[in-house]
Amino acid sequence: MTMAPDRVRARFPEISTRAWEHPADRTALVALRALTGFDTVLKALSSLLRERQHRLLYLATAVRVDDRQFRTLHELRADCVGVLDARSTPEMYVLQDPTVNAFTIGMDKPFIVLTTGLLDLMDTEELRFVIGHELGHALSGHAVYRTMLMHLLRLSASIGWMPGGGWALRAIVAALMEWSRKSELSGDRAGLLCSQDVEASVRVHMKTAGGTWLKEMNHGAFLDQADDYLRSGDLRDGVLKLLNLELQSHPFSVLRAAELRRWIQSGEYDRVLGGSYPRREHDRDARISEEVKHAARSYRESFDQSDDLLIRTVRDLGKDVGAAVSTVSQEVGQTVADLGKRLTDWRRN
Fold first, then answer.
1. For site-directed labelling of 52, which of 112, 176, 197, 328 has its Cα 20 to 30 A away?
2. pLDDT, tens digit, for every residue of 210-261?
3. Which backbone phi and psi does 53 adopt, to 5 degrees?
4. 134 is catalytic
5. DSSP letters along 96-161, please?
6. Which of 21, 126, 134, 259 is catalytic?
């Protein structure tokens, strides 16, 4: 059945990917694009992924989206390509898999894969957001870093047993994981620019977190969870939050919705809708030093505004070292006391 757009959406002629890329993501991408011979490196890494083999695999095992198959998705993709003024249309496949997932593969010619689990979960406008998210990944060239991350993860698993040898690699992997999480925030921004439907963007994350029972969930309450997560807990909870995120390539669903809300509240989304956005013709003029400043400012603002007790303690360390040390000592002491009590109870039993 043909699906006509439910309303007219703003389009962004010659929009640069820098318009939706998170500052930390954009810094890495600008640096990479500035390298001489970037295309050569791209193709070399693509061969490591056996990109052609992957494309043939999906061509044989999944359903390719076009005007004859999954026409609704075909039209959603065409609409997203038009909104972001993409120079080419990536192939898209639907894969029979109950897992809710969507991903973009390939560096030379990226293509998008959507699972049937995702299609069963999302409505049309939510799928528009998801397809826009994946198109944002394809246009930004995120696959190159994801390839590096994949190989480093394999390498770290194979040499992690070496004394001291795995720590340096683990630091690199952690940095790439942090980049990967920020690249997902970039994808969400691209998805919102394609859908231009804030409610739908939040519903995507609500369904990813809570499943199909949308009637039992609430938009405002869902976003309140993020506020509770960020400001609740003691120092131990702050450490646990960091540990939970360490090897996650994607931010948690609740936090992704909150980050998108923060981008909207910053006014950046409305500025892009109003036509004020960087153009592709100026991409070569983008300076790494400026992007580093933007990234540092972004982290600084998040750091300064955080209500997490661990971050507040670190933030206040310079103001009152004695108070901070006292707080840390109390938390550590309480943790040790709790552990000792549990051991004593265990021995008695």
1. 176
2. 999 999 999 999 999 888 877 765 444 444 544 455 555 556 888 889 889 9
3. -65, -40
4. yes
5. --SS--EEEE-SSS-EEEEEHHHHHH--HHHHHHHHHHHHHHHHHTTHHHHHHHHHHHHHHHHHTT
6. 134
